[in-house]
Amino acid sequence: MTTIEKSRKKESALRRPRDLTRGAYPGWFYLPAGVIYGVLFLLPTVVSFYFGFTRWNLSSAEFIGFDNFVTFFTQERLNRGFINTLIFGALTSVAKVALGLLLAVVLTSGIFARGYLRAVIFFPVLVSTIGVGVTFKILLDPFDGLVNQGLALIGITGPGWLTDPNLAIYSIAFVDIWKGVGLAALIYIAGIVAIPSDYFEAARVDGSNAWTNFWNITLPLVRPATITVVILSLIGGLRSFDLIWTMTSGGPGFASDTIASVIYKQYAAGYYGLSTAGNVILFVLVTVLVLPIYLFLNRKSKEL
Amino acid sequence: MRVERIRNLVGGIIAIVVTGIVFLVPFIFILLTAMKPREEANLLEFALPQTFVLFENIAEVLQVRDYTVVRAFINSSILTVLSVSVMVVLAAMVGWTLQRRKSRWNGLINMLVLAGLIIPPAVVPTIYVMKGLGIFATLPGLILIEIAFGLSFCVLLFRAFAATVPKEIDEAAILDGAGPIRLFFQVAFPLLRSVIITVIVVQSVAVFNDFAAPLYFAPGGDNVTVQLSLYNFQSQYFTSYNLLFTDILLITIPPLIMYIFFNKQIVSGLTSGAVKG
């Protein structure tokens, strides 16, 4: 014991010059942020794992086991939200990757008016989701909306984009892609610009064309950008609430509900336990889908 | 070479037309409708206004329901300025310390930062905690919520940027007798300037545009924010599209100004993960 203590003292005495800088970064710097984050984000997240299993009215909670979760997955008006969340997350992520990459390739080529085009595509990212939602709700109106007016000009009778139960969630996904594709394109542009031009020159010497360049150089080397776009789109898409709530409020009926809109509806209806169970389901879903991708990315970037 | 130039020009013109239809028409439609009187606006046509009444519309929107839009703009400004200032200082402290101080807690802290980025906030439990603290449905409560939800993103940017500041600078300052607070506020903070601007711009737009947090955690007319006022507006004034679109126009102006002046910072902040992850 004493020998160990002695040797520890010796060690710390030897390390003193290092300890000098160590004291310059005190642990309490974490404290103010940690308190706000801990109380208003971590604590609610942790207790949601208890209240999700209760019938709850904020003053008293009765433990009812898995009842809320059974309700969530057996009632069609609730599990439709689960299915829609998966559809919405998958569709918007895939579309943002494909369109974002396409736009980025076009916008990093020698095309005319590049700067202008980038600005136009990116601006919707910064506009409020509510503004976009309200505008598109009116543009997509089945009778007076500009979209169907435009389609009528070329002889097509446009569908009820937001009033057809089978179509509503896809129309909202389209608007989400419209709003978010600029960010995906921008992330891809940053990724493409970072590729050393030597690769393309060497490929040209070997007689490659634009297509083989894309397939053999650009696509593999923008993988970090792809993973970033997928992660951001999945996080945003699976949690999506603002756009859906503004455009359809989950309607018609519950045809375009997602987990996030169900959580709000059940809260507004006073079913706090059920609402919180929805939060737990969303937590698990997002974590299971996003965390493996994120960890994979981190491992890869450490290897490099 | 010449063929290529012509191809780029033709491609550019096609792209301008397509993006014009897809991305610009909705914004032009907002602008046109906001300029029209009610009857004309309600036709929802994509046409120039016959009578130009944009300024009358703005004046009317601002007065609607006892100046609720004005109050919303004041509330949103307070919310944005206060939450972003606190968020920046606290997140910079965390990001800086996290990058500089090596300890066995780093793994846990990194995990918590990541959790804040991906986990959706639990709605009712947060309300429960806020009620316990007596800050539910208050502006200070909403400010704290925006700080809590925004910290993670800022910490990631600060941590990445702190790695580019040479440690020798710290050592020199320490040898000159600077304590931790002086080291951070007088040495580190100025060196983090460019990333601070990025964080301020990106988070200001995010907080100003946020809808869900004010809806959940600050209900009630006194705390109304611009996004909430637009949402309420659409259900009440769906018969006056001119006013509705004037409101959208007003709400789009602050992010537009940010975009014009801080384009570079916004782009660098939002694409920081693209190259290295």
Features of the shown structure:
heterodimer; A: 304 residues; mainly alpha; two-stranded antiparallel sheet; 15 helices; 2% strand; B: 277 residues; MetI-like fold
Describe this structure in words.
Chain A is built from 15 helices and two strands. Chain A has 304 residues and is an all-alpha fold. Chain A has helices spanning 2-14, 16-22, 31-51, 67-74, 76-108, 114-126, 129-139, 146-153, 168-193, 197-205, 210-221, 223-239, 242-247, 259-268, 272-303, and strands at 54-56, 61-63. In chain A, helix 4 (67-74) crosses helix 5 (76-108), helix 4 (67-74) packs across helix 15 and helix 12 (223-239) packs antiparallel against helix 15. Mean pLDDT of chain A is 86; it is low at 12-16. Chain A is globular, with a radius of gyration of 26 Å. Helix content of chain A is 74%, strand content 2%. Chain B is mostly helical. Chain B has one domain: MetI-like fold. Chain B has helices at residues 2-35, 38-41, 54-100, 106-118, 123-133, 139-162, 167-175, 180-191, 193-209, 212-217, 226-236, 241-270. In chain B, helix 3 (54-100) packs across helix 6, helix 4 crosses helix 6 and helix 6 runs antiparallel to helix 9 (193-209). Chain B is globular. The two termini of chain B are 37 Å apart. The chains are: A mainly alpha (304), B mainly alpha (277). The interface between A and B is large, with 103 and 103 residues.
